[in-house]
Specification:
about 220 residues; mainly alpha; Endonuclease Iii, domain 2; Endonuclease III, domain 1; 2 domains; two-stranded antiparallel sheet; 11 helices; about 55% helix; DNA-binding
DNA sequence: AACCAGGACGTGA
DNA sequence: TCACGTCATGGT
């Protein structure tokens, strides 16, 4: 068992199943964001796939709690939909996604993504196609592929690099290089990649969000 | 009150 | 390639 597999086992033992990507749901009269650690059939609709893309864009360098507020605002105005976003007044969009920060840039990003999304007509976009959209970088691109389309790409984020470095697993900083080494070390199973990235984030939020990074981190690779 | 959050892009060396 | 500045809100 290689170090990447060891790390996954330990993370899963510590934190349990995560059930990413979180999706909006009506709970009672209200709308809330819910994980689904017991059901990996999500997303179930094209609309939910789009929602994942929107969430992935909105969460760029932004706390997920703020993103939820923006998502709920969009949903309450029936704007969590590609065509609806294209037809909406950009100034109105700005107000709704305001809590997610960078609302000027993100409004443009959402409209560009919505435009492409409708053009794909339900087909899975190629990685290069996604990366060609202004506002979609490697992490956002791979999050969309992995969580919206079940494409087995390993998502790298700042937390991933931080944890890998602290554990002496890898000090690689280049996104593509690190992604390839992860994918080479692990079976190409979407559900595994989905859980792995979610677990790294969960773990980093606990032990790697304030300096000194990794203080009290219980992980140990042999 | 500074620091951080599930980044991406533009610029200049 | 790489380092830096910019974008912006809200929680701790």
């Amino acid at each position: 068992m290689n170090p990447y597999q060891q790390l996954y086992r330990q993370l899963h033992r510590i934190h349990g199943p995560q059930g990413w990507w979180p999706l909006l749901r009506k709970s009672g009269a209200r709308i809330a964001c819910r994980y689904h650690p017991d059901d990996y059939r999500y997303p179930k609709t094209s609309r939910q796939r789009f929602e994942i893309g929107v969430g992935a864009i909105l969460t760029q360098n932004t706390n997920w709690g703020n993103v939820e507020k923006a998502l709920i605002n969009l949903a309450t105005h029936s704007l969590l939909d590609a065509r609806a976003i294209l037809n909406a007044n950009p100034e109105h969009l700005k107000k709704l996604i305001r809590p997610a920060g960078y609302f000027n840039q993100k409004t443009t990003k959402l409209r560009l993504f919505a435009e492409s999304y409708t053009a794909w007509k339900g087909t899975i976009p190629h990685r290069d196609t996604l990366l060609g959209i202004w506002g979609i970088g490697p992490e956002t691109c791979d999050s969309i592929l992995l969580y919206a389309y079940q494409v087995p790409v390993f998502v790298i984020d700042a937390y991933t690099k931080r944890i890998f470095k602290h554990l002496g697993l890898s000090s690689e900083t280049d996104y593509e290089t690190l992604r390839r080494s992860c994918e080479q070390a692990l079976p190409r199973e979407p559900a595994l990649y989905q859980e792995y990235h979610a677990l790294l984030v969960a773990h980093a939020k606990r032990y790697y969000s304030k300096k000194p990074y990794g203080k009290n981190c219980p992980l140990q690779l042999s």
